[in-house]
Design a protein that fits this description.
The protein has one domain. The chain contains 10 helices and no strands.
Length: about 230
């Protein structure tokens, strides 16, 4: 039973995360966002190509995917497990509630990981997606909101100082796991997963890093040829 639930949570979270809101919003306007700007389906490219309202909507929806995968989808799956157990056995077993906190956290983290992977490698667009910053933020809004707040402040400061959204995203991807390690030093699994997601976010910015080194990365407010999200 536990292995099956792990699989169901992972698949469901991936499918939720794979919804390409940037692509869908652009398509509704008659634009294939993959062929304009950076070609990225994330919020930054959507904002520059479609305008601020559409970009903000994409940002919020991408973040909502991560939050919902952890805070809503996983408990809902366990609720369905309880319903199934109730039908086949006497009484309500409250399967999820009786799991130790560390076991519950593993399911939450699994959902968060696969939601981000779904966004970054969506099956609906030949496994090409965004960079996962907003979706990761949604995941940690549910898991570690104070650590996310620190990362958000770092992001804002980095963007204000450098005028590069990519620098802000990379700085936040470093600040988030660092803060989680400080705030929850005994939660090894959470720390490892947060670090892995931070590394993945930085890896997805490798093209931006190359342009930063070459001095060709566009600053905030400039017309972009390649985005950071």
């Amino acid at each position: 039973m536990p292995v099956l639930i792990y699989i169901v949570v992972a698949v469901a979270a991936y499918l939720l995360g794979s919804i390409p809101f940037g692509f869908l919003v652009a398509k509704a306007k008659g634009i294939d966002i993959r062929n304009v700007g950076s070609g990225n389906i994330g919020a930054t490219n959507a904002m520059r190509v479609l305008g601020k309202p559409a970009g903000i909507f994409v940002l919020l929806m991408d973040a909502a995917k991560g939050y919902a995968a952890v805070a809503w989808l996983t408990p809902m799956i366990f609720n369905q497990v309880d319903v199934w157990l109730h039908r086949h056995f006497s009484g309500s077993l409250d399967y999820f509630q009786y799991q130790p906190a560390n076991v519950q956290m593993k399911f939450f983290l699994l959902a968060g990981i696969f939601a981000v992977l779904g966004h970054n490698y969506t099956c609906w667009l030949k496994f090409k997606g965004g960079k996962g910053i907003a979706t990761t933020a949604g995941v940690f809004l549910a898991l570690a909101p104070w650590a996310l707040l620190v990362a958000f402040v770092v992001f804002i400061l980095a963007v204000v100082i450098t005028k590069y959204v990519s620098v802000g995203s990379i700085a936040a991807a470093i600040a988030l796991p660092a803060t989680v390690w400080i705030m929850a030093p005994h939660n090894l699994f959470l720390n490892i997963v947060t670090t892995a997601l931070g590394v993945l976010a930085i890896w997805k910015h490798k093209a931006n890093i190359k342009r930063l080194i070459a001095g060709t990365e566009n600053r905030l407010g400039q017309k972009k040829t390649e985005g950071t999200e």
